[in-house]
Amino acid sequence: MHSTPNTTGELVPLAPTALVVPQQAESDQHLIELWLHGRSRHTQRAYRADTERFFEAVAKPLHRITLGDLQAFGGQLVESGLEPSSVHRSMSAVKSLFAFGHRLGYLPFDVARPLRLPALRDGLADRILEETDVVKMIALEQMPRNRAILLTLYAGGFRVAELCSLKWRDLQSRDAAGQITVFGKGGKTRTVLMPQSVWNVVQLLRKDAKDEAPVFRSRKGGHLDESQVWRIVRKAAKRAGIEKEVSCHWLRHAHASHALDRGAPIHLVQATLGHSSVATTGRYLHARPTESSSSYLLTDI
Questions:
Q1: 90-118 per-position pLDDT tens digit
Q2: Which of 50, 237, 238, 255 minimizes the number of CB atoms within 10 Å of its CB?
Q3: 134-191 pLDDT, tens digit each
């Protein structure tokens, strides 16, 4: 306990003061901004849309929302015909927002904690391209920049945001090939070694570009937008005769699955892709198993 001298010089104990906890959020909207801070642009855009839909449906401030309101909202999403994956993401976003508000002391209770999310079928196997399909996509691309993009996405297992933000200073030579360093999801930095064949194709794009210049430039000279890369990938898939709606992330899935199929250690694939857990990488083993107990059954019946 602290003390202070009185008029006679004697020390008099000070009365204890109550701990003042500053208010972290001033309104529901302020809480949402704090919750979204630091997330990727794509995640922010999706979560904003989810929360806007939620507030329109419940028409209440956060502190007045009940578990019943949340369950009713989930039912509305299902009845609207929304894809199960979109329903799951929206409900996950809402649960995350309430948990965040409770941790900050803005909400007295986390009413979303007991909310059960709808079961979701794992469709990873549907989004893994065959090696021959990837080869076709790359081989049929005539534009050097776009071909380098396809090669880099596949060989590096990069996310589209990681690829779009690359500058030449992020690429370092190593013997005859090189490495690429990206600032990835969750604020994690990782460095990926590139095959010499891919490295050489990417280096042809540099010419006299400075270190701070983007590796994959738009027509205006800046960084390519993610939507532009998506169009490049989808056109390449269509050109290769792939009927599915292929996205940039499918090349990341292909990297993981093909590397594991060819005997790459799972911890190495985990490090290359930047997965926080080896269990995430292990999903690719389950999506495309190389063995099954069915092969031990008597099938000539």
A1: 999 999 999 999 999 999 999 999 998 87
A2: 238
A3: 999 999 999 999 999 999 999 999 999 999 999 999 999 998 899 999 988 777 899 9
CATH number of 28-103: 1.10.150
Is 275 in the active site? yes
C-alpha dist (Å) from residue 26 to 49, 52, 80: 21, 18, 33
88 is catalytic: no
For 191-234, write each residue's pLDDT tens digit. 999 999 999 999 999 999 999 999 999 988 899 999 999 999 99
- The reported pLDDT for the residue numbered 83 is 83
- Helix H or strand E segment including 11: strand 11-13
| Domain residue extents for the chain | 28-103, 125-287
Average pLDDT over residues 19-36: 85
Is 185 a known active-site residue?
yes
User: Catalytic pick from 239, 249, 283, 288?
Assistant: 249
Sign of the C-alpha dihedral, residues 148, 149, 150, 154? positive
Task: Using DSSP, state whether 28 is helix, strand or coil.
Answer: helix
Which CATH number, 1.20.1260.10, 1.10.443.10, 3.90.850.10, 1.10.10.10, labels domain 125-287? 1.10.443.10
**For 67, what's the count of Cα atoms within 13 Å in the CB-facing half-sphere?**
9
Q: Token digits for 160?
A: 């589209």
Catalytic residue among 185, 217, 283, 288: 185
Integer Cα distance of 235 and 229 in angstroms: 10
Q: Locate 269 and state its tokens.
A: 């694939």
E-strand ranges in 124-219 read 171-174, 177-183, 189-194
